[in-house]
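Lecture 7, part 2: worked example. A protein chain together with LH2PNOKW.
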Amino acid sequence: MANRVVNSVLGQGTRVWSPVSRAVRAMSSGAGSGASPSHTYETLRVSQPRESVIHVELHRPEKRNAMNQAFWREMVVCFDRIAEDSDCRAVVVSGAGKIFTAGIDLMDMAGDVLQPEGDDAARRAWNLQRKIREYQDTFSSLERCSKPVLVAVHGACVGGGVDLVSACDIRFCSQDAWFQIKEVDIGLAADVGTLQRLPKVIGSRSLVSELAYTARKLMSDEAKSCGLVSRVFPDKDSMMEGVLDMASEISSKSPVAVQGTKINLLYSRDHSVREGLEYIATWNMSMLQTEDIMKSAQAALEKKSPKEVLYSKL
Ligand SMILES: CCC/C=C/C=C/C(=O)SCCNC(=O)CCNC(=O)[C@H](O)C(C)(C)COP(=O)(O)OP(=O)(O)OC[C@H]1O[C@@H](n2cnc3c(N)ncnc32)[C@H](O)[C@@H]1OP(=O)(O)O
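Predicted complex, written out as structure tokens:
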């Protein structure tokens, strides 16, 4: 049933991610990797549009992909599975329907974080802190996943949407996109990653502060000029083509090199240059022993394209 729904939503040529299709692929490629991840969710649609690329689509279009409790739960499960899936080398996130996302589901929020359980203030605070950490973990799971996460934003990207995109590695948007740190307008300080990650993404604390204090909309051209997104496409279709092409390109490269790069970029973001250099020296004392280096060097000497090299799964 779920697959029938997914098939009707996805276009031709897009393969739906299901235990059966993945098992068939594993058999046909001779792969013998353990259990197949079963990606069946209420708020997400997961497919494999290109070799080694997984597409995670926020999928509550009639509610503008507002992030309800199921979403906050499912995103972690989805990304923790992807992290363990050696068939996946790059991930694309996008939104179904009119916009990318309207942020947290305001109806759900009223019944969840606004009514913490507990017999007294201390116990309510204790429980609320645990809950906030769970919300935070939803987007931290995108960083925890060592495969590069590319996000493609069209239309509105509000509140929790900015938290989400801040945790991605590469951001694209369409011309009609806009971003809004909306939390102040609903009476709270953003608490699931925007205030921590965004200043490191766009570099200007002044601009982040302005956007966070005023909740003004950041339109696509300004998002590009300030470095929030690296490319702006004329429309959603061309953006999806562009983002999938880039994900394919990344997934054709050595997963040891690509995933080691993500881990070290994130480490260096949060540490001094000296600590970052120390970390990668220790990292590469193992990873330089990969056969991928010899394969890549051989291909370069033979003037072959890197795309012709077959790298083992990681
Ligand atoms: C510990 C907590 C951590 C997380 C914090 C996160 C905080 C935030 O995300 S703050 C931001 C909250 N979001 C908003 O304030 C946005 C509200 N929505 C809108 O402004 C508009 O919907 C939007 C501009 C995004 C799109 O406008 P459009 O005209 O295209 O759609 P609508 O007709 O307004 O909506 C269509 C249906 O979707 C429902 N909906 C939209 N947004 C939400 C939402 N955030 N939560 C719940 N439901 C939402 C809307 O009610 C319509 O439903 P229906 O009436 O049943 O058709």
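The CA atoms of residues 68 and 109 lie 8 Å apart. The radius of gyration is 20 Å. Keep this in mind for problem set question 3.
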